[in-house]
Amino acid sequence: MKIKNSIAIFLVFLSQVVSAQESKVNVSGKIIDKTSNEALSYVNVLLKKASDSSFVTGAISDEAGLFTLVDISPGDYELEASFLGFETLRQEIFVGSSSAFLNLGDISMTSSY
């Protein structure tokens, strides 16, 4: 009887570990002008795999400069932000599985003029 209980507890624990590793994460942030600290609207935001730069997903920042990339698997990525009149920004990020949300905070872009 103890063996059956031990096996049942082990299987429940194992299923929790496996489901925790399969969790998806929402990555968000705010794009701002480095000089004026004002939000930048309609910035193209791309997420690429760090290993081979293949496209994963993308979004466009809203009027407040906010963006969200949904259902991202844990791993190493490169975030790329581009906007007319600004230098393209590339930033390496690590997405973990300990939280369902990852807020990158303010991301500053530099004017190209």
Notes on the structure:
The protein has 113 residues and is α+β, with helices and mostly antiparallel strands. It contains 1 helix and 7 strands, in the order H-E-E-E-E-E-E-E. The protein has one helix at residues 2-21; strands at 25-33, 44-49, 55-60, 66-72, 75-82, 89-95, 101-109. The protein has a 4-stranded antiparallel β-sheet, with no helix packed on it. It starts with a helix and ends with a strand. The relative contact order is 0.25. The model has no long low-confidence stretch (mean pLDDT 89).
Quickly describe the structure.
With 113 residues, the chain is of the alpha+beta class. The protein has one helix at residues 2-21; strands at residues 25-33, 44-49, 55-60, 66-72, 75-82, 89-95, 101-109.
Hey, roughly how much beta strand do the residues contain? over 45%
Which structural class best describes the helix and strand composition? alpha+beta
How would a textbook summarize the main sheet? 4 strands, antiparallel
Q: Give the rounded overall mean pLDDT.
A: 89
Low-pLDDT regions: none
Ends: how far apart? 75 Å
- The rounded Rg comes to 19 Å
SSE arrangement, N to C: HEEEEEEE
Q: What spatial form do the alpha-carbon principal axes imply?
A: elongated
How many H/I helices?
1
- Tell me the number of strands: 7
Strand order of the largest sheet: 3-2-5-6
Fraction of helical residues: 10-25%
State the main characteristics.
single chain, 113 residues, alpha+beta, four-stranded antiparallel beta sheet, three-stranded mixed beta sheet, 1 helix, 18% helix, elongated
